[in-house]
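Today's session is about reading a structure prediction critically. Students often jump straight to the picture, but the first step is always the sequence itself: look for stretches that repeat, for charged clusters, for runs of hydrophobic residues. Only then move on to the predicted structure, which in these notes is written as discrete structure tokens rather than atom positions. Here is the chain we will use throughout the hour.
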Amino acid sequence: MAKQTGLGDYLAVDDSGGTVRDISNDIGDYGINIAQELIETTGLDKSARERITGMSDGDVSLNGYFNATSNKSHDVFKTRTGTRTFDLRVGGNTSSNPKLAMEMQIASYNITRGSDGSLTWAVTLNLADGTVPTWSTVA
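Below is the predicted structure for this chain, in token form.
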């Protein structure tokens, strides 16, 4: 696959009832952090650090535009309890596009009213189930 933009991305998150909701139109930007713990194991006989792979983690930050329409972003995030499936498809929901799906917990849902009258939100999602975040492709 060639270099590409983030235009046309598909992003869905389960609501509190477990139903997948496409909230792509409510999202302005997102950030994904897939982290890898590195455990230092440097012995006395070394002059540089030694590390081995530890646990993986993942978190997502979403920023969007307030939408109180049924089954849109406010409906998805207003109840913060329960595990949610985060599903990103870079370039859209088209076969062979990169896909990242993770089971997440909602850490925060913050709404901001700007001085210009804008109403936006920010959500932080953290990995929930101990499964290593792995990229795949849309089938």
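Discussion point for the tutorial: The longest strand covers residues 98-113.
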